[in-house]
Structures are given as C-alpha cells and as structure tokens.
Amino acid sequence: MEQNRRGAQASYVALTIFIAVWIFMPSAVRRLNREAFTEFQAPAMHLVSKSRDLARFWELKSRSSEDMAAAGRDLARVNAALELKLADFEDVRRENKRLRKIDSYTVPADYMSVVARVASRDSSSWWNRIVIRKGRNDGIRPGAPVVFGNSVVGRVTAVHLTTSEVDLVTSPGFRCTAFLEGDEQNRIVLVNGLAGNSLRAPQARISVIPVDYDERVGQVSKVYTTGMGGVFPSHLILGTVDLESQATKPGVSFKEGRLNPVRDLYNLQEVSVLVPLHQNPGEALLDQFQ
Amino acid sequence: MKEELPGKVLPSTPIDRLRLYAVFFFFALGFVYVSLGLGIRQLVESGKLKEVSESQSRRIVILPPARGRIYDRNGEILVDNRARWSVKADLAALQKEFRTEYLKLLAAEKAREATQINREALQETAKKNVLEAWLSKVWFVIDETNKSVKSGRKPTKVPAITSPNDRHVDLEALRKHLRERRPLPFTLVPDLAFPGTGQALSPQEGMKAVARFIEQFPVDGPIRLESDIIRTYPHGTLAAHVLGYVKDSAELPPNVDDLADTKMDSLQKLHYTGKKGAAGIEETQDELLRGNSGWELWTKTSAGYNQSRLQISEPRQGSSAKLSLDWRIQAAAESALSKIRDTQATVLPGAAIMMDVNTGEILALASQPTFDPNRLADHVSYAYYDEIEKSGGWMNRSIQGLYAPGSTFKIITAVAGMRNKIIDWDDILECGPSFRVGNRDFPEHEPNGYGQVDVEKMLSISCNVWNYQVGIRTGVDNLAAEARRFGLNAPLLKTMGEINGDFKESTALPSPADHGLVVPDQVYKTRIGQGRWTDGDTANLAIGQGYLLTTPLHMACVAASVARAETRTTPYIIHDPKRDGIHQGSQPIGLTGPQMSAMRAGLESCVEGGTAKLGKIPGLPYAAKTGTAEYFKDGKKAHLAWMIGYAPADKPAVAFCVLVEGQLDTSTWGGKTAGPVAREMILAWADTLAKEAPKAVSEEPGR
Amino acid sequence: MGWAWLILLLATYPWLLGADLATDMLAGVGAIIFISGACIIAPCRRLRPIQAVPFAACIGFLFEARRPIPDGALAITLVAASIFLTANKPLLRNTPRLLRAAIITNTLACIAWSIAVTIALDTSQGARPATPWVQFILQVSLATILGAAAYLPISLVQNFAMDRIGIPPAADTP
Do residues A251 and A211 make contact, with C-beta atoms less than 8 angstroms apart? Predict the structure, then answer.
C-alpha cells in the first residue's frame, strides 16, 4: 500500500518534470520532434496513396477495349481542338511579349508547375488541409499556390522531404485578395478561410465587399484572384459568391459573404503546385518565422 | 466508532425551550424582513431596477453610414468611398517579445556598468524596437523596390530584411496609445494603399501594396489587418476647392435617437468618431451626403466586452450629389493654370471659371494653388496644413479672391456710356497718348496713343483714354449704378439649395466673398475716410482700377450676362437638367441693336486681332476682353492678368473668366498670361461638345 | 525489455493510419476520426510507467505531427493520462472498467487538443467557425463514441503483441 502510494507520487513528479522540460525546451527541438514524427509517417502515407493508385489502375485495366477505343477517339478530338487553340495562343503570346516590351512591363511572377498526387485529406472545424506526395526533394517551397486546372485549391503551408501539407481555400490559415465578377471598378475583396462546420461542406468568407456591389440577379458571380499580391497568378477562380447567407455581422461599411469553392476540394486526386521561380519577400519572411 | 445518542433531541427544560423559541423568533423575524425586502424590490421597484440593470448591462454601438458620392454633370465620380486597409500590432500578443527585448537592453545597460538605469525608458525603447522590427517586416513585404524582377531560371533569394531609416514608430504616438488605448491594437501603417503618409502612389500601386501584404504577410502572429472606409478623391487635386474635404466629428449623424423602446441617454455609448464635411460641397451638402447612421444594441459582460446583439438598425448611405462641373473642362483649366509659373518655377496663384451662358451652371471652377483632399481624408497633419497655408492653397480664389477687374470693367463703362446717351456706337473719340484729369496725366498703355477710337475699336484694343473721357462724362454715380446693375455688389452662390425641394436652403459653396465686394462711389470714399471723390477717381474706376474690388466669378457672370444681352447671371454648382435659364434680378441690358452689335464685334475682334489675339482658336471664333490690373504685393508693383469672354462668338454657349496673380514683376499681361488658359478651356469644351454631338443626334431623331 | 513500447507502437500504428484513412474519406463533412486516447489503455494496464509514458507521448506526437495543433498539447494530455492510469491500476481491473477508461481518456484527449487549437486560432486572424460550440460538442461526442468502438479491436492487437514480446500479464487479470 505504502509502496504504491510512493510510486504514484513519484510518477506525478515525473509528469511535472516532463511538462516543465517540454515548456522550456528550445523551439528548435520541438520543431525537430514534429518533423521527425511527420517523416516517420511519410512512407506510410506514400504506401497507402500508391496502393490506392494501384487499385485505381486495376479498376481501369478491367475496362473493355471498346471503352478504351471510344475514350481514345474522344481524346483525339479534344486534342485536335486544343491544337488549334494552341496556334492562337502562340499569336497572343507574341503580341503580349511585344506589348510588354513597349510598356517595359515587369513580369509579375514566374512559376514552375509541379504536379502532385493527393495522399490524404484532413478536415475539421479547425483546419482543412491535404497532404500531397511531393516535398522538398521535388523543389516545393512553403507559400506556393496550389491549383487544379484554373481554380485555386490552396497554399502550401509545410514542406517535408517527400510530402507537403496544403492549406485549402477554406482553411483559417488561408488569406488572399480577389475580384468579384460583376464589379466594374475591380475593387479588391478579402478571402479568408472559415474552417468548415463539422458535418457540413466547408466554406470561406469574403469580406470588405463594397456596399454598392450587388449580385447580378439569377446569376452566380465568380471570384477571381487579383494577381496583385505576387503569390497567385491573376484570374484563377476561387469559387462563387454567396451573399445571401450573410452571417453574423451585416455590413457596416462593407458587405460580407460566403465563398463556395468552385470544385469539390475533397475529391481531388491530383493538383499542381506553382512554385515561384523567384522568392518573394513574404517567403523570405516565412523563412525567418520558422 | 459512533456511539448511540440518547433518544431525546428536543430540549428537556423549559428554559431550553424558551431559548429555542427565541432563536426561532429571531430567525422568523429575519425571514420576514428578507421576504418583505424581496417583495418590495420585485413588486414595487421592479421597473426602476430593471432600467438600472439594463443601462448597466447594455450598450449602444453606433454604426457610421457611408457618405454619398459626388458626381460631375456627366456622371463621372469625383468623390467616392474606398476601403482603407491598415496594419495594426496586437500589443497583448507582443508582451513576450517586449519582455525579451527589455531584458536584452537591461543586460546591455548593466554590461556598460551604467550608474543609473532608467528602467521606464528602457521599457519604452524595448517596445519601440520590437514594433519597429515588425514595421520593417511589413515594409519589406509591401515595398515595391524589394520585388525581385529579373527573369531567370533559378529561384532568387531576396536580400535580408533591412530597416529603412525613415520608417520609424512615432514614440509620441506610442506613448499616447499606451496611456489612452492600451487594450486596443497599435496602428503601424494607417493606410496600406498610401503607406508613407503623403506618399502619392497611384491607386493601382496602392492596391498592389495592399494585395502584397494580404497574400504574403504571415497570417499568424501579432500583426493584424483591419479595414474601414475612407473618403477618396479619384482625381486627386481636381476641383479640390469645390469638393472640399472631410474631418473627424464626434457629432452623431441623424436617426440615432429614434430608438423607440430604449432610453438612449441611460445607455452607454461607445465613443463615436464620424466624418463631416469641412469645406466645399462636402460641407455645404453635408446633410445630404452624410446619410443615416445605424445602431446595434448589445448586452455586455461584466468585464465590458460585448456579449450578444439584441437589436440592429442598419446604416443608410448618404445620397449622392451631382455637380454642374464637367471634369474634362475642369482638368483642362487646372492643367493650363498650373503651367503658369514664375521665374522660380512656382505656380502663380490664379483662378479660372467656365459657365453655361444660358443656365448659369458652372462647368469649371479652378483655383491655384490647390491641395490634395486625399491627404486630408484621414486626419489633417500639421505639416500638410502648414504647407497648404504657406502656399495660400486654402483660398478658393475664384469665389473668395477680391481683385480690381482692370480693363475687363471697360465693358461696363461702355454700357454705362451708351445707356446714359454720353456716347453712341458710331461716335469716334480722339485718343492721344495720355489724358489730363485735374493736374495729373492718366496714361495710355500705347505710347503713341490710338488716335480715332469708337466702341468697337476700344473693346478690341482696350483703349484707356476713351474710357477716361466717357467715364468722366458719365459720372461716378452712373458708373457705380451700372456696376451694381450687373451685380458687382451682390454676393453670388449664396442660396442654392434646391435639391429635392425638401432639402433646406444652404449656400452652394462655403464662404464666398460678400463683405469685401466694393463698387465705390462718393459715399464710399467718404465712409472709409479717404476724402472727397475726384475726377481722377472716376477715371480710375472707368478702367476698373482704384477702389473697385470683385471676384473672378462675378466677372464670369458679367461675361455670361453680356453674351445673353442681359445684366445678371445666377451661377449654380449643382447640376439640374431642368434649369429654366431665368436669372434672379436680371433685366435686358438696355442697349439698342446697333450698340449691342458694336459691343459684340469689339469683343470678337479683340480675339481676332486685339489684345487677346494670342488665344485665338482657328475655326472657333469667340469673344473676349482682356485686362491687366495693377496691384501691390509686398509693396512692389505687380500685375493681375484678366480675361473674360464667351464662346462661340455667334451663338454664345459658355462664358469664362481667367485671373492670374503676377508676382513681384510686371511681366504678367492679360492676353499673354490668361489667354492660353481660356483657350485650353474653350478647346476642352468644344471637345466635350464634339463627343456628345453624335449621341445627341441619335437620341433625338424625330425632332 | 526497454524497447518493448516501441514494438508496441509499431503494432498500434496501423490503427492510427486506418483512422487517418477514415478521416480522409470523411473529409467532405469535416469530421476527424480520433482514437489516440483509446490506444493507450491496454498498454497502461501491463506496461510499467517508464514504458507507458514514452508510448503515450509518441501516440500523441503522431496525431499532432501533420495538424496545426500547438506542439505537445495532445502528447502531454496522453502522458498525464498514462501516468495516472499506471499509478492507479485498480481502475483498469476488468473489461467494463477498461472500456470506461478508454471512453474517458479518448474524450478528454479530444477536448484537450480542441481547446489547444482553438486558443492557437484565436491569436491568428483566421476566421472562427460560425458556431464553435456546436462544432466542439460534435467533435467531442464523436471522440466519445470512437473511444468505445475502437478500444476492443485495438486492445486485442496490443495484448497479442505484448504477449509475444513477453510482457507479463497484469497482476489481477480478470
């Protein structure tokens, strides 16, 4: 009995010591610890994700050759159409280059696109993020925008050796500027992730909408990136505006609305990370924060 | 462990029982007292108490309305509201950093073996250092110069953060903040779109700075982004004197006190700072522009934070005002005026006005030097106030500047002469190089004289001697009466509030000159103690010199009236498409047909080959009269350059007036200095007309 | 014997991975499958405190690693729970008690990291969920149910692993 009690006391002392050590531990050690546990889990993530890909592969493989032929034919048509478009783009590109030269226009940002498979998704009331199967080894850097097609998925928040974490548009850590479709004056609004409500589709918040901005009746207005902040390229689609579910605070000087992400962010299989070729000041600052 | 107690619980003796009853009695008494008290509170005083508790637990938050917009006559936005983004530091979240920095400073101080360590000063320095470090990070992100632009294949590293020398945290502001608003975040950058105060970024560049901060600055951390609404003047200094600016006001906008079921006075209101117009249209149309404020009724926690909202009334934006100005003509006038500079390349003070001849609506009202109302939108900094004060930019010279009209007054002298039958349109006077009045020679500005001069020639070449003769023969009383008939003694722009009908009367623009206007006569000279009126004074009056004082707007109205062959023009600054062209107190000019034709011909030939020939526009004949008045500035003689007139000559549509104050030399001349400004305005007007013409044709095909 | 806990951790990890996969599938509705609390009960019954503590800490760190939870919030909670449980072995005497412990530990751990992450979010400028309390209660009740549901299969695997490593059975085996 006595021995037991002493043992219990000793263990509480141990707990206190543990907490004290944790609190006073240098942040570098903590970061190392976190990093170590992430890297420990990385191979498993890869394994799971790749086996999923394999399953998908076998699923596709079981399709009949007629299906394949039909798909191939469709693709050939699409290809032909795109080929034509490409020729147009070449003209536009040349014209654009000429105009930039005249205007001595500075190229806003140049990106290297890295395509990555989505390994896992994690969403709660506090965060919405996905893990992608590319990391530092593939040249991914924190802060880089992540897109799918012409729509924004989110931004890289943490980069590990072979995996990266991406904060989705709807995550509270996400913030960017946007233009609203139908606002002729192109005034910028603020898009903020608004962690989803449990058991409901996540949304983001659009704030600082000018009071005189009105949704066009019967139409869905898109939300575009501005391309002014030096992070996102311009004219990518963030989602659509929903002014009706105007939440807690009605506009004093501004309106507020909800952003419905344009795609089902949780069913993405593949995304591309736009790694900027030049480090922007924000990224340099991020280096110091870490 | 426990022993059985004896069975008896109640006291056994009578004395014990008595004690017990006494205790019971006192308890009962206490109970009755408490219940009575509760009853009274609950039934009798409940109303009052409820009120007290409500007033202690509720709070009204005033929601300021957005001010209305101001448009020009074509719907171009002259004044708008924009989102202002500011960067603030959360002091509570920075406590740890303050402490670390303080300890570091303290250690350094101790290492120096300083005899006396001022810990308070150290604390302050620590706070300042930490905030400045953050400020430099903010600048690092928003500063355009840090952008790496060179196009290369490799990721380029941005140089390490450097703290620019001129970005400091104002220690005084920090002290004041810590004293008065410690729980609130401290403002690091008040306006991201214009980060350095007064740094004139283009709107596009400003937006880029905002976007860079939003997208690049880390979301986590003690630095926050806040947004509110601020007045903006998209055209910068354009028409600044007409538009005015806004200033802070603690005055509650209307509609706050109509909270029907709540007693406003007993509730705590948060300190409210709104904006009100401080000059120009912003001031005179304030009631229209400011809108109705809204309010929120909150319950608050015992710590004073807002808890939950009970009621809300949303604010309503102010109505917009539509000015009669045409921004293109206004811009032309201002840019032409700003090109007139002295030898040190400082802009000469001046004014330019263009108005619609028929309706009296002012199309352009410019005054130099001017100011940028954008820099006054948040608060007026002493430095900028002084800068404007020193340049004389506060004064709206076109309506407040009092000047001798010089030769432009000769139009009125001619009208007075003809109406009083002193002279007719075809009478020719012999005009030598000077004219003797009493014992003084009054000079001609042409050394050889002009010889034979009639009304038409006089107006064209601005002959002084003709006016001396006609003026003296007409007499001071008739001259003064004629000037008054043209309204030179009547304040203008005073009663103009005719918007909507239910809007109360107000002045169109604040403080137009009214007391300073002088149309001199014998009574006037005696009143100011300058002795008896002489013929010399009359000769001076006849050429618009001497005691006569008027404003450029008055002379513009004279030009418009002459163009219509009337005497008065009421100027309007608010656009109304239904203006009837009836002018208050106006009457026919009172000249015969040939007399009027001679006048028109004279004013026209003034541009064709007379004193205004430098401003001639091929293919667009117009009428003008120049003037060069003498005045004394700092004891030295200087010239005022005047030019008034109307265009086009055959079918007057717009009238104008230009005035430029020459500085300490006599190189300023009516036609030479003021002419180009008038020319630019007329060209701008013709341009707008040309642009609207096809539209007007297509709009009214049936008429 | 000193590294027994590490082997046990490897045996437990597939369950955590499974929970992550389930979370992945439920991502559309924003629910987290949280079973870390239930994972430490069976080991606490048989391991000595010196082994149970690193085991609990690692379970905590594994959950925290990829999520924006303040460093150590969950790990410390689980370590505290493991110390308490190993010091009060009678609380884990029989199956109902073990189940009760799993439910309580899982719920408490979920509450702990939720509160930690809410506080961390508060200092940032991120938007808060519209109805934080509802979300909080939903997440915690989910954790309670999962604690009960996940305990039995996990403990089976863990007990099997401990038998193979050669950790003696608990003194008062039911």
Answer: yes
- Partner-chain contact B227 A207, CB within 8 Å: yes
CB contact under 8 A, B147 and A141: no
Note down the domain range covering C151: 4-20+34-164
Report yes or no on A207 lying in a domain. Answer: yes
CB-based contact A105:A95 (threshold 8 Å):
no
Q: Which residues, including other chains, have CB under 8 Å from residue B50's CB and lie 6 or more apart?
A: none
Domains of chain B and CATH, by start: 58-83+235-322 (3.90.1310.10), 91-145+162-221 (no CATH), 327-699 (3.40.710.10)
Quote the tokens at residue A113: 């696109």
Task: Quote ipTM for the complex.
Answer: 0.84
Range of the domain at A223: 111-290
User: Residue type for B318, please?
Assistant: G
Total of domains in chain C:
1
- Report the pLDDT averaged over residues A82-111: 78
| Mean pLDDT for back-to-back runs of 10 residues, chain B (703 residues) | 48 72 88 86 72 66 78 89 85 87 90 82 90 86 58 41 58 83 80 63 76 86 82 86 85 57 51 75 84 72 58 76 91 92 84 93 92 81 85 89 91 93 90 88 86 91 91 92 90 54 50 79 88 90 91 93 92 86 85 92 90 87 90 79 92 94 74 89 91 57 39
B270-310 tens-digit pLDDT: 556 677 888 888 888 888 888 877 777 766 655 555 556 67
Residues A192 and A279 in one domain: yes
Residue C91 belongs to a domain: yes
CA dihedral A206, A209, A215, A220 (to 10 degrees): -30
Helix (DSSP H) and strand (DSSP E) numbers for chain A: 4, 12
Q: What is the pLDDT of residues B457-472, one digit of tens each?
A: 999 998 999 999 999 9
Per-residue confidence (pLDDT) for residue C126, from 0 to 100 = 47
Instruction: Give partners of C (≥3 CB pairs < 8 A).
Output: A, B
B-facing residues of C in 113-152 (CB < 8 A) are: 123-126
CA pair distance B186, B176, nearest whole angstrom: 10
Inter-chain residue contact A197 with C129, CB threshold 8 Å:
yes
For residue A52, tell me if it sits in a domain: yes
Strands B429-431 and A175-180: unpaired
- The answer on A122 and A38 residing in a single domain is no
Give the distance from CA C52 to its chain's centroid: 12
Determine the Cα–Cα distance for residues B384 and B551; give it in Å rounded to an integer. 27
Note whether A24 and A115 are same-domain residues: no
Instruction: Identify whether A88 is part of a domain.
Output: no
Q: Which chains touch A (3 or more CB pairs under 8 A)?
A: B, C
The number of CA neighbours under 13 Å toward the Cβ of B119 is: 2
Task: Please judge whether C125 and B93 are an interchain contact, meaning their C-beta atoms are less than 8 angstroms apart.
Answer: no
Q: Is residue A199 part of a domain?
A: yes
Phi then psi for residue B224, to 5 deg, are -115, 155
Mutation pick from A253, A277, A283 vs chain B, by most beta carbons of B within 10 Å, is A253
Residue B433 CA to residue B431 CA, distance in Å, equals 7
Interface of A with C in 242-281 (CB under 8 A): 247-248, 264, 266-267
Query: Which residue of B83, B149, B220 is in closest CB contact with A254?
Result: B83
